[in-house]
Structure formats: structure tokens, C-alpha cells
Amino acid sequence: MINEMLAYFAQGANWAGESGIPARLGEHLWYSFLAVAAAAVVAFPVGVFIGHTGTGRVFLVSASNVLRALPSLGIMTLLVLLMGIGLLPPLAALVLIAIPPILAGVYAGVANVDPEVVDAARAIGMKDSRIILQVELPLALPLILGGLRGAILQVVATATIAAYVNLGGLGRYIFDGLALYDYGQVLVGAVLVTGLALVLDGLLGLAARALSPARRAIAN
Amino acid sequence: MNWLLDNLPQVLGLTVEHLYLSLVPTFVGVVVALGLGLAFGNRPRARAIITAVASAIFTIPSLALFVVIPSIIGTQILDPLNVLIALALYSTSLLVRTVFDALDAVAPEVLNAAEALGYSHARRRIFVDLPLAVAPLAAGTRVAAVTNVSLVSVGAVIGVGGLGQLFVSGYQRNYPDQILAGIIVILLLALVFDRVIAVTARLLTPWLHLGTAAAANGTKLRPRPHAPEVPAQHGTAAPGQETK
After folding, report:
1. Residue (of B121, B119, B67) closest to A179 by Cα position
2. Of A108, A163, B103, B229, which is least surrounded by CB within 10 A?
3. Are the Cβ atoms of A174 and B67 closer than 8 angstroms?
4. Alpha helices (runs of H) in chain A, residue ranges in sequence order
5. How far apart are the CA of B141 and the nearest CA of chain A, in angstroms?
6. Which among A205, A206, A169 is positioned nearest to A189, based on CA atoms?
7. With an 8 Å Cβ cutoff, are B63 and A77 in contact?
8. What is the C-alpha separation between B98 and B93, in angstroms, rounded?
9. Around A64, how many Cα atoms within 13 Å sit in the side-chain half-sphere?
10. For residues B14 and B182, what is the distance between their CA atoms, to the nearest angstrom?
């Protein structure tokens, strides 16, 4: 199997065209980006609201648990049957996966800001909107980035399943390979997704590290 | 919902398979993570290596792991063992960090007291550190169990997925009710697992709840703290700061 996989990688034709490795990689990244961006648009304001006001914590915990238990394959196939084949059903399933980690990160980041710092900001006359934008969010940045990192990794992993409902992305190799009993191609897909996830994780880790000294400077 | 009621025997069979595929890896994960945590918690280098490997494993997408395992250990690609191993690896990776953190959180006074009472290292690990780590470990186990319940269904695309098979067959036959039934039963399973682990952890740690009850009463009995009228006497410490 490993030899077949290496042969697939060595074949120049597999790197060109619409079903070439770069094109599939691009599709995979595109779905993941859309899903994480949409999830951030939903989760960010909710997380800031709950973190800032402290209301709705019970809702946050139970909503995250339910979303974590939702089987993405089930959501994807159900939505395809209800809405037809297209980008929207897999995207909706990916957004549902990405919401809990982003929500948790934003909430925890904002809620963990030292109350004395918030009181100080209020005492010097900052309004709530300024407290959120200039005090809480900068201090929450490391935890927000942590949540975003978790969301990106889960979405990149799960975007593989989008190929099951006739979309592209790196999952294409796994499902096409399984259908053709071509396990070399299956491995190609598995290795590419894993590599992508590891590289993204490394890059996001570096980004988080680069931003944490800034946080210390603000805190001082 | 009608589909679910009409096909209860089939769903029950798949539920049993689903339970097996998600419970066994959770259990293996807890045991292996505890073993690693107790054995290597005090060795920084081994610990750093384990943490790095665990986070790398956790990054591997489940479907990729399901199909890669056969080429590593030589099982058939449709063998349920692949799913069991993959999920056990995830659970272990998730929990080993929790175990390290939980053991770190045991108060040094408690460890000193155990040492003073003449506990050997191994005995202390099992009878002092372990029970005190149950509560955080249970929180991690709940996440691992719920994640497993949801991940098992992905195995359906390689033919081993318990209730996930309802998704594959419902999709192929264009039958949304069947998929909906699968989602509902999976959510119920996740909910039941979550509650069972939470309640078990509560039963295993009776002292924690005695503690919180006593603390709650204590704060009620204690007079409300109010700002001192005279400035604090100890140098630079501002009033109220010591209460943190």
C-alpha cells in the first residue's frame, strides 16, 4: 500500500489539473476557511456578550456539549437530502463543528480578564464598548487564538467528509480510493490531510507565540 | 420519528455496536492515560515527549487514521479494530494531558502529609494522588466519551460505524428520516454517557461535595467582609487584596 502511495505522489499527472493535488488542497482550504469564518461571525459576538455580561453561561455549556455530540456525517447527509447537493450542506455541518471551540475561547478569554482591570477602565470613564474593544479583547487574545486554532484543526479534519457528499477537497482521494479498492490513493488522501493539519497546527502555534509577548506588554 | 419507532430492533442492534465501538476506546483511553500519567508525571522529559506525541496524534483526522491503521498494523481495511484503535489513541491523547494537569493540581501539603504518614511512593500515587485526580479526570473523560460517540459514526463510510450506518444507508436510499433517527439516538447516547460519567465521578468523590456544602455554610455564617475603616497595616498591600 505504501509503495502504491509513493507511486501516486511520484506521478506528475497527479499534480496537475482540476483533480490534481494542489487543486484538491486549495478546495480543502477554501471550505475550511469559509466554515471557520462563518462560525467566527456567529460565535464571536455571542462569546463576547456572555464573557462580558456573565449571563448565559449555562446556555453556553449545554449548547457546546450538544454541538460536540452532533455527528457531522449525519448532519451533512441529512442536509444534502433536504437541500440538494452543493456547498451549503457540508459547509453548515463544518460551521456547527467550528462554533463550540471559538465560542469557548472567546468566552473564556473575556471572562478571565481581571475584574480589577475592567473596574479601572470603567473608573477612568471608558464605556462598555471601549472596555470590550480596548481592554478585554486584547487581554483575551491568547485564549481567542487558542479557540480559533482548535476550530481550524477540527474543521480541516472534518472537511475530509465533504467528499462523501460529492464535493472536492482532500477527502476525494480517500473516498475515490475506497470505491476503487485503490488503497494507495486512500493513503494519499490520509497523508495529505494529516500533513495539512500538522502544518496548520504548527503555524498557528507560532502565531500564538508571536502574539503572546504583546499581551505581556499590555498587561504590564 | 416514525421510522425510528418502526425499526426499533435494527436501531437497537446498531446502538449496541455503537456502544461497544465508543465505550471500549474510552475505557482504554482512561486506563492508558492514567498509567502514563502516574508513571511519567514526575519526569519532565518523558512528559514533554508524551505531550508532544499526544497533540500530534490528536491532530490526525479520524477518517485518515481509520484508513492508515491497516497499513501500519496489517489489519483488513474493514476491520472494526481499526476504529477501536483510532478512537483509543484519540482518547488517550486527550486524557493524558488532563491526567498530568490533575496530578499537578494535588496540593503539596497533602503529598507531604502522606509522606509524613509513611506512604511509599507507589502507595501514595494510588491512594492519595489518584482519588484526588478523579474530578478533573472525569471532566476530561466526559469530553472523550462524547467525542467518541460522535466520531464512531464516521467509521460508517468504511463499513464500521454503528449508528453511522443509518446515515450511509439513509443517504444512499434518499431517506432523511433514517438519518434523523441516527442523529437523535447518537445525541441521546452522548447525553447518557455524559450523565453516567458525571454521576459516577460524584459518587467516587464524596468528600468534594461535603467540602462544597461545608464551604457554602461557612460563608453564610461568616460575617460579610466590609472595607476596613483604617488603612491596612501591612506595608503596601491594599485593602481587599489579601482576600484573593
Report:
1. B67
2. B229
3. yes
4. 2-10, 21-53, 57-69, 72-83, 88-111, 115-123, 128-130, 137-158, 171-179, 183-219
5. 13
6. A169
7. no
8. 9
9. 20
10. 9
Q: Which of B60, B154, B187 sits opposite A73 (nearest CB)?
A: B154
Q: How far is CA A110 from the centre of its chain?
A: 20
Its ipTM equals 0.82
In whole angstroms, what is the distance from residue A182 CA to residue A84 CA? 29
User: What are B28's three cell numbers?
Assistant: 482504554
For residue A87, give the C-alpha cell: 456547498
d(CA B13, CA B28): 23
**Complete domains list, chain B, with CATH:** 2-242 (1.10.3720.10)
Provide the residue-wise pLDDT of chain A in tens; the chain has 220 residues. Answer: 788 888 888 888 888 888 889 999 999 999 999 999 999 999 999 999 999 998 888 888 778 877 888 899 999 999 999 998 888 999 999 999 999 999 999 999 999 899 999 999 999 999 999 999 999 998 898 889 989 998 999 899 899 998 998 888 999 999 999 889 888 888 899 999 999 988 998 898 888 888 765 555 555 5
CA A129/CA A116 separation, integer angstroms? 17
Quote the DSSP letter at residue B242. Answer: G
B240 and A CB contact within 8 Å: no
Burial class (CB in 10 A: 0-12, 13-18, 19+), B184: middle
In angstroms, what separates the C-alpha of B8 from chain A's closest C-alpha?
Answer: 18
Q: Which of B138, B157, B153, B141 is nearest to B186 (CA)?
A: B153
What domains can be seen in chain A, in order of their start residue?
Answer: 2-219 (1.10.3720.10)
